[in-house]
Structures are given as structure tokens and as C-alpha cells.
Specification:
The chain has helices spanning 56-63, 115-120, 122-125, 129-151, 190-200, 236-257, 259-264, 269-273, 284-296, 312-319, 374-383, 392-396, 412-420; strands at residues 17-30, 33-39, 44-50, 70-79, 87-98, 155-156, 162-163, 175-178, 181-185, 202-210, 223-232, 281-283, 326-329, 342-343, 346-350, 352-357, 362-369, 405-411. By secondary structure, it is α+β, with helices and mostly antiparallel strands. It is elongated. The structure holds 4-amino-1,4-dioxobutan-2-aminium adenosine-5'-monophosphate and magnesium ion (MG). Residues 167-168, 188, 190, 211, 213, 220-221, 224, 226, 228, 363-367, 407-411, 413-414 line the site of 4-amino-1,4-dioxobutan-2-aminium adenosine-5'-monophosphate (4AD). Magnesium ion is lined by residues 354, 363, 366.
Amino acid sequence: MAPITTIEHLGQFDGQEVTLRGWLYNLRESGKLLFPIFRDGTGQVQGVMFKKAVSEELFESVKSLTQESSVIVTGKVRAEKRAPGGFELDLLNVEVMQRVPEDSPYPISLKDHGVEFLMEHRHLWLRSPRQVAILRIRSEIERAMHDFFYEHDFTRADPPILTPAACEGTSTLFPVDYFDDQAYLTQSGQLYMEAAAMALGKVYSFGPTFRAEKSKTRRHLTEFWMVEPEVAYATLEDIMKLAEDFISFIVARVLETRRHELGVLGRDVALLENIKAPFPRLSYDEAAAMLNEGFAKGELENAFEYGNDFGSPDETYISSKFDRPVMIHRYPAAVKAFYMEPDPNDLTKALCVDVLAPEGYGEVIGGSQRMGDYTKLLERIHQHELPEEAFQWYLDLRKFGGVPHSGFGMGLERAVAWICKLDHVRETIPFPRMLHKMYP
Ligand code: 4AD
Ligand code: MG
């Protein structure tokens, strides 16, 4: 019996017989030769079948094989410099598990399909080499995230998904019936992670978060995955350092282990190789001045109004001036969430940071130092018209051993879109949830 392996590990079996389990991707024929291309989720390999070397029945079975039929393949591995993975398989047997019927072919052929059609067939679109490459990079980023935090002595703690109140503003909440109460799907685990940080010091969470965003942009999902570290005794400065080390670590890991997949996507890796801490830092005021200058030079269509949050053309403009992520800190408190600590040097500003990815990808991380003072926090809760009862436990954290503390959240899909250089976040997650989009 030939050992069972996967395409990415064929190199360990040069000259030997192996068994692969996968699907037919494509089939070429040339006289007495068949060249089926198989895929198994780890890569693709071309098989070679000589008419004379196998039974007529087997040859005909492979010759009529349809795209995406499932197959168990046995063959001898042969190094082949011209092959994309470096190896070919001289086929000895192909056992067909399920043959896709000739009269009802796999809907996604190898020609181009429109995005609309592909989105409706997302359950099958996932199998295409591009989507496989993206999901393998996504998975590697997740692994890198966990490795980074464990290496830095963080404890993972999982915040709830059903919550009684808003974290990031009341306009993007998804309501859920909770017996006789109203609950919401979480927008961020942060508030709970603050409690966990007071218990454990350095914590992080990773889980799905929800925003009923009515915006139909290439950066917005209604369900996305956020990784959120929270650190007791940390200041804004400390988590800015953490954020740049974190991003640099993740990019370095993808370059190390997923170069092949970046190649499948045609990603310019030289641009990723620049991504090393320290990252440039700009205050909100400096960034605003840059936007004014850009407008004066005619490089920006619209003038920036001081005091506003940055729009995506603004973010794109700022990040286009740098070859690595930019950290913009100290935004006006008025445009940010209720829980941020004011800057002692200018009480109208918040001790917060947004990290903007290069190449026009915009904000990938949002973080801040959290409000330390009980009375001021209560005031903010009132100002933002949040229900005080639901925040009693959160206020308690300022009453029982309060300490300066800070954290941030990174949207995984935004990071994947940037690292893979995708046009839209819809390809970064197996089954995207967007405005008016829930199927499949
Ligand atoms: O900037 P945000 O709203 O920050 C928070 O939720 C904080 N409570 C995080 C924290 O400090 N622990 O969201 C954080 C990140 C954004 O920078 C962005 O990458 C991503 O989450 N994000 C989205 N990603 C996809 N679709 C959306 N609708 C997103 N909204 C935010
Ligand atoms: Mg933000």
C-alpha cells in the first residue's frame, strides 16, 4: 500500500509511490497521453497517464473524468523542474469517488465568472486556487496571532457574544430577543477584556463581532473576526509599540510560510518585506495638516474639515505617503468612543490610535488608553445616552483597584485583504456577511 500524503508534501516522496485524495481540477489530453491536474486543498499536481501503461478501462475512466469529480489517486512521484510544485505524478490508479455528471457540470468552469455569480456559489467558489490561497493565508495569520500573544505571556480569554449594551456606538447594533429581554450581538469584546485584564494582567480575545453597518464598501462586513489584546498598566504608548510589533510579526510569518500562496495571488512581496517596526507616527493634527496640504496641491478632491474623523479617501491619501503602516494618534474625543482616556495635554483629544495599512487599505487597528476615572466615565456614559444599569459592572473596574490600561482591536479581514492585496473583504472570509447578503 502506497502511503497517503498531500500535494504539499510530495517532495518527501520523490521516486516513490503515494496516494493522494482530492478532486479533478482540469484535464488535458494529447493522443495516447492524459494529463489530469488534481487538487487537494494543499496544492495542485499534474498526473501523467500513458495509454499503454494502464488498463483500457482505467484510461477511459480518466479520459472522461469531469471537473471536480472526487478521486483517490495513486502514482509515482517524479521531480519535474517545469511543474509549478516541482513534481509530477506518473499515474498507476485513479479511483473515482463521485463522478460529476456530464449533463450537470460543475458550475464554476475555468473561464472568468462575474463576482455576483461567484458570490451566489461561494460554497463552491472556495475551491478555486485563489480562494484556497487566501484562506490558507488567513489561517496562518490566525496562527501567528496566537503565537505572538502566547510568546508575549498573554492569556486568551473569551468575551461573550450576547451582550446587554453597546460598545462602539448604538447605531450599528444587531438586536436579539433574549427571553423577555433585549440583547445585542457584540460589537467588540473590549469592555469584558478590560475586566479580564484586571484579573490576568495581559489578555487577548479572538472571536466574531457584529456591526449592523449600512455601508456597502470594500472594507465593511456585518460579521467579522476581531483580535483584541488588553493590558493592565499599559499606556497608549505601550500599545502602539505592541501594535507595530504585532503587525510586523504577522507579516514576517506570512512571508516565511505562505510565499507560495502570495505568489498564486500575484502579491508583490517586496512591499510586504518593508513592513518592519517602528512604524511612522502622526498626531491627528499632523495628519490633518497633511490633508490640507494635499488639498492645496490638488492631490485631494475634497478639503478636510478639522475636527472630523478621516474618510477613506483621507486615509488612503495619508497612507500613500508611507511604505509601511502609519499610526495616527490623539483624535478629537468627540469622534471616538465613550470609553477613551482624554489626553492630559489637550482634553479635547483622546489617547487613541488608528493604524492605517499601506496601499490604500485604511484602518486595520483601532485602540486606546481607557478612561480611568469613575466619575468622568459615568459622565461619558450619560453624554452618550448609554444605559447606566448595563454599565455598572464596567464602572466597578474603576472602583476596585483601577489602573491605567490600554488595548486595541484588529479586524482580521482587513488585515487579510491588505496582506493578500484583495479588492474587497468579501474574499477574506469563507462565508461573508454583508449588507443584504446572507446566502449561502
Ligand atoms: O475601531 P474599532 O471599532 O474598535 C473597537 O471595536 C475597539 N473596541 C477595539 C479595542 O480597542 N479592543 O474596530 C477595530 C477594528 C477596526 O480597526 C477594523 O479593522 C475592524 O475592527 N472593523 C471592521 N472590519 C470589517 N468590517 C467592519 N464593519 C468593521 N468595523 C471594524
Ligand atoms: Mg475604529
